[in-house]
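Fold sample X.
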Amino acid sequence: MPLASANDVRWALQLAQDEEKARKTRVEALFESAARSVDVADQAAKQEVRPKVQIIDEKAKHLQAQLQNTSTTASHLYSKMQLIHEERQRVKLAIHWCRSVVDLKSACASLAESLERHDWDAGAAHCASASSCESSIIESRFAQNAVPTTYLPDPPTQTLHELRAKLLEQLRKNFEFYTIQESNEAQATRFLSLFGKAGAYDEGLDAYKTLAVSLVHAQGDGIRNKLISTPPLSPYYSALWGTLFDQIAIFIHEHQPVVDRLLLSDSKAGFVQGVLPGLDGEWTRLGNQILDAWDEKRQRTRLVQESEACLFSVVQKIRATPHTVGRIFGNVQSSNRERSLPFPLTRPSTPRATPPPKEIRPELGVVDVVLNELALFSSHWALFTEFLINSLGTTPSEVDSAAKIDAPHALDARINELLTRTFLPLQAWALRESLEKAHSIDTADLDARPMSSSLPDDLFFMLRSILTRALSTSSISVAERVLHQAVSLLETDFIDIVVLRLDSCRRSLNVPRLVEGPRRLAAAREVKATMIVYLNVLDQSSTYTERIYADLHSPAFLSQYFKDIPKDQHASTFEASDLALAQDVVSRLNSLIPKYGSAIQFEIGELYTTLIQSHMHAMVTDLLQDLTYELNEAAFEQTEQDNRIASRLQKRWELVMPSYRERLTESNYALLFMRCLDALLIPYEESVLEMHFSELGALRFDKDVRQLLGFLSLHCSFGIRDKFMRLQQIAFVLNQEEEDEEVYETGTSLGISWQLTPSEVKHVRGLCIR
């Protein structure tokens, strides 16, 4: 209840104090009860547990007294056994030393005897036996006192070293004799195996390395002699480069299994660590000599400097003057009158202007040879590196660490430097030079069907060669940069230039002084030829691009230069293979396809607007003039005789679309035809939807649609029926006898894919006059 006054508060406080006192009294009683329980438990423990503990303690002390003597006896026995064990170990070690020293003495004596008898097999076995003795025993005073004899008085360390050196020297001499002078493969293999039997793995590998380096050096003499002669303008140095690494690969393939079988052990190096470093130094020196000679004879630095200083003017001139009157017909006259005159226009005493100095440009043929050789250098080197990885079972980093290169520059670094500083700049220049050359010799072939020019054939033959060469370097980065340059250049200096030519020639018809007459007809004829030619150029270029992409993207082609395995097969994360990366690079060619398509679509529209639209408008106006489908029987019979729509279309169509089918490519003609078809059918449909139809008129309309479809199908075989779908459905609706709301469902049940909406169907049904 609420406390309303001070008395209520005092009463509540008194009540709380009383409760607190009662609670305190109960707690004190509980504590007293607990204390009594603890005392009772303590008394019980003293009376029951303590006597038992005392009894157990007395028994333990008695047992300890009984076992004390036994423990002392066991301790004395353990000390004596430990002394016996130590003495036994010393005796065992002494026996081991004695046996080892006896074996060492016997092995040294037998080794010396074998050397005198030229018994190399026994000598190798005795050498291995003596060498297996521990160095601590050989160097001990005991061995120094026990091993020397009258015949071998020197300390065992010196004796073994001298005998082993004599044996290995004889083995090396015999190995070199049977490999270089006698060419006895069986004996050479025998003496090489004796190095392993004697435990001299490193010395055997060193002997074989010397032989291998001498053989490679001898093979390189022929290459060095060829480097002195004057090379022809052909891939001469790349052939020498390929010969060098082919010979080394064959040598490694034949000899590496033999060396590892005879001289590879668990604790000793094999072919990779023992022989490969020497071979690497030799092939690096020979490779650098080839590259040095190539650099000097091909004048690489001069070519790069000249290419960087070159100016490209053809494309700039085309941008400045994209359309020249008469060029498409091959009758362009020079704008410089002085060139056409047999004498100068200046007076004899007037000094003529000094002609500008002729620009120094590299020859495209020379640059192509240099680029081809560089690509072959890189391709052969990549192939050789892959061979080393596959045959020796090691990664490139492990091969590099094993092969201590003695030459100033590693071949891998030098090849990469040449690709970066020579191949890419020269390739960029060759690409632009070839493109400008293709533009400069661009000639229209107006007699061809379809009409075209030399531009796409020249350009895409060049493009295919350049991209193939870039991919043949086996370098993803090089291929990526070259393809990026090619795609960018095709966009700016080919597609844009062709579109610029089309736009410029089209604008030539808008000159105010070009009034109707022969001059305008001639200009229109030239614009028509120019637009047809360059529309076909764009379409053919799209086809060529797709073909090049399909050929270069195929694994059958790319697998020649790129591996289909990840570079790091042990990586925890997924890493794409070189082949997949190369395919991704080539896929960038596809970015050109939409650009061709958009340019063609736009220019087809401009061709229609410029040359066809006015004629098409006149034809459509003539077709739809006085057209009616409110026919009685007499009018229906008259239209059957006149066949008005079909006959007018047949008469006027060739005037609207003269010879476009033969002159345009198939896809370009299809685009233009569809544009004309839209210009015909859309106004026709709009007019039809504003008419009324008698029953006979609906039949006549259905016949007209069928005749139009039949006639136009003769001029283009694909895509026509889709354009006529709405008109055919209108004819279907007009000729139905069902009620309005049932026509749409009837058509759906018959499998018609309606292009008309239900509201349009209802509107068409409302046009019928029943």
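Fold sample Y, listed below.
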Amino acid sequence: YYKPRIDMEVLRKYSEGIIALSGCLSGNIPIAILQGNYEKAKSLALEYRDVFGVNNFYLELQMNNIEDQNLVNQNLIKLSRETGIPLVATNDIHYLRKEDARAHDILLCIQTGKKIHEEDRMKFNADDVYLKSPDEMYESFRNIPEALENTVKIAERCNVELEFNKLHLPEYNVPGNQDHFQYLKSLCMDGMIKRYGSNYSSDKQKRLDYELSVIKEMGYVDYFLIVWDFIKFAKDNGIMVGPGRGSGAGSIVAYCLGITNIDPLRFNLLFERFLNPERISMPDLDIYFCYERRQEVIDYVVKKYGTDRVAQIITFGTMAARAVIRDVGRAMDIPYGQVDAIAKMIPFRIGMTINKAIEINPELRDIYDNDEDIKELINTSKILEGMPRHSSTHAAGVVISKEPIVEYVPLQKNDENITTQFSMGNLEELGLLKMDFLGLRTLTVLRDAAETIWKIHGKIIDYDNMILDDANIYKMISEGKTTGLFQLESSGMTQFMKELKPSCIEDIIAGISLYRPGPMDQIPRYIKNKNNPDMVKYDHPLLEEILNVTYGCMVYQEQVMQIVRSLAGYSMGRADLVRRAMSKKKADIMKEERQNFIYGKTDEKGNVVIEGAIRRGVDEKTANKIFDEMMDFASYAFNKSHAAAYAVIAYQTAWLKYYYPTEFMAALLNSYLGNTDKISRYIAECKAMGIEILPPDINESDVKFSVVNGKIRFGMAAVKNAGEHAVIEIIRERKKNKEFNSFIDFCERINLRDVNKKCIESLIKCGAFDSMGIYRSKLLTVFEKVIDRIHETKRKNI
């Protein structure tokens, strides 16, 4: 807010328990002093003391090089002596270190769009507004020691306890005051029968019981009930829900509750990758919804738990490596071409920093070492790199709390949303429940295609129970016919699929996992092994059961966990901790874990905690080799649970494309109405598939693409410059009355405020009026005159 939100009346009402300071140079009392009105300053000071109480209000002294500060300090000391209001020393901090003054000045230039050499700009007339050390503060306030002593007194009176990693989960309202855990268990048992039938095997029951015990022990019973509830709401209301996302697909509890639709036992997914009993962390069930109806689910959660207990989450855009170079260069008034050349020397990839770029780019390092201006540019940029540039609302993050959110974190208005002022990571540390309500365009495509199929063919498409072993689907993918398929349509992925020739869903899962920076190096080996299974060799027989599904290649994070468990006897929870440490290349931990993996570990009483590979029949040399391979692989290994969910969606889109190509392509086109490039690509694909695209027609076209007798009619909203609102108005008029029998009839009936000349011109150019028997060229010549004449006639008749 740019204006004060609290007046004296509110301050008096809520002043209890508050210690207040008079503020910096922008405070009311210093302003009165600078205006030469000492009596007003004194009156304000006494009023504040009256509001907060004796010894609850302090006059604030700061020591810096700002000229006005000395005058204010002299008068505040005088005020204190006259009124008895105590003094307190504070430190005006705008940057961390003394040497950051220059970088801070440049940051001000960036924020205000000014150059560093401009005189008429915002700047600090001091270079010491940094976090001073205790010794520096003692030196600054050596003549007013009581001001420093009062800082300690205030601190001792403050009662602030920040609780980290303590859950503040809202309680789910269980019907009939049932025990929450028993209710969750009963839901899971019902789901178990639904998923596996009444004669399910004991291993499934054992897995379910284990997961439930961990969930109960870690205090996440209500978490699962909350997620189950809003997923149920979505499904009950026809809102498409994805099969899963992230490590949550590894939970049989989530599967039985209908939160996910990936059988973790079929795909050998690990619960501990999702929820580790040996590492306290919040579970993270990210959910995909149809992107057009995602907000309905959020609205349901807000209504159920209260507007004061649900908020969206803030996110901060930061000054990344390339961008900060350009920003600083602009503020320093370095020629754009020179700055741009430096920025382009920084590789464009996730996680890239300026320091990393200097390490890997010899040319950048050379310029940095030999050009003082560039060195200053880069050094300043390094200081500002990673700082927040702007805030916005997280695309999917929502926080749900037990008590009003303001009891835990501050809120703010961001655009039209109420958001937390803390980002996602901080919220989790404070124990608040974070949910990702993600919108996925592909789910909307699946929904639209299913609705069209039902309308035309009377067939219900049951995505949740789709069989995943149709050879026709894998043949189509192997032939490179992947345009429009989720995760598979890029040129590189298409080529990979043609070479891989997937024959089962496991191949699609592996393909999605391998086709990314890092694991791409494994692709040739994977393809070779798939095509020559007899040539696959394992360093130890115990590896075969783990790696046979990926033809002897390490592909998944879960495989690392399985290897350390199977070969060395780790618990699955500790196996996940090792995987995490490997992925982050923590050398000290890895040195210890190598020892544990090979030789095992005993506690102080001599009890075996980890058996170790040697005790399990693996020789030392082989154990070292396997550990090295895991180390090399773990940093870029992919989460199989996540890949499995993606692969299922990919298969569903492929199934639609094979068996209902027209309905699928129409739905796909409708998901990109405003994207001309995508529309052009998918229309070309339709033609390649032998699907006829009927042109836009003012009397036949709908807002979106539609299926007509096995053909696709072009949707008018996809016409460039037509505008969806205008098209909706045209079709509303057509349906309300009758079809347009001429261009003049069209112009007379539509509201020209809704359907402007630009829209009409675009409809003429695309052929929407061709069926009326008028040449487009002729219509383009006269249409404005026709519109003007009709408009004038209507005006005269008013």
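Sample Y note: The chain has a mean pLDDT of 92.
Also: The two ends are 47 Å apart (CA to CA).
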